[in-house]
Amino acid sequence: MHSAGPPKKILNISGPYAVGKDTLLNAIISRYPNLTHRVTTVTTRPASSDADPTYRTVSLNDMQELALSEELIVTSQFGGTVLYGTSANEIRAKISEGQICVHAIFAGPDGAGRLREVFGSKLFSIGVLATQGNIDAQMDVLAARLAGRTRDNEEAVRARLAYQADPISYVLENPVVKTGDGNTPVFDRVIVNDQLDRAIAEVTALFTEFFEVEEAAR
Questions:
Q1: b/e for 80-109, b at 16 or more Cβ within 10 A?
Q2: Up-side HSE of residue 64: CA atoms within 13 Å toward CB?
Q3: pLDDT for residue 1 is more than 60
């Protein structure tokens, strides 16, 4: 059993591209649709709401205005060419309605680190790696996964991989940050998604334990 403390209200899963973050989150959402709210991500990257309704494309000016009008956690990715934003106000509003917020934010100090700083012990955060081992081992597995996707050509794979060393390093390091509840590691758990069924079972078990919910019937 986990230690006593404030009830968890937010589940975050972070890791490099192609590590399976959305698949793991969707497994939780599909089992607990009435308990969970998938947090919206605003981005300056063109995104189709039909393909992923959790993403909303905005202009750079709109992103800057949102950051001024509400508490927005903004990450800069792909060499600073794309911005992603998470609304802390949205999370607080859904928590007040009794829902558990679920999210996948960038694995870095401005993303997963900042989310921990803002929400402290209300957050249960999971870092995900593709395999055991160092950065080189992680990159080899991610390259193989990306190469197996029919939607990514060789150039797209290279472009994706060029920016994955930093999030991998951040998960491996799992730094401690300052929160209102004291100094806390960014990630409560780090798991390896080298077998999807096993990773889903592990995340589901963590969710039911730390959010104190009954295991859903399958």
A1: eeebbbbbbebbbebbeeebbbbbbbbbbb
A2: 3
A3: no
* Per-residue tokens: 133: 């081992």
User: What is the pLDDT averaged over residues 199-211?
Assistant: 97
| DSSP 8-state assignment for residue 122 | G
The Cα–Cα gap between 93 and 68 comes to 18
Q: Is 30 exposed, middle or buried (0-12, 13-18, 19+ CB in 10 A)?
A: exposed
Give CA–CA dist 127/15, Å, rounded: 6
User: pTM above 0.70?
Assistant: yes
Percent of the chain with pLDDT over 70: 91
Q: Is there a contact between 113 and 179 (Cβ–Cβ < 8 Å)?
A: no
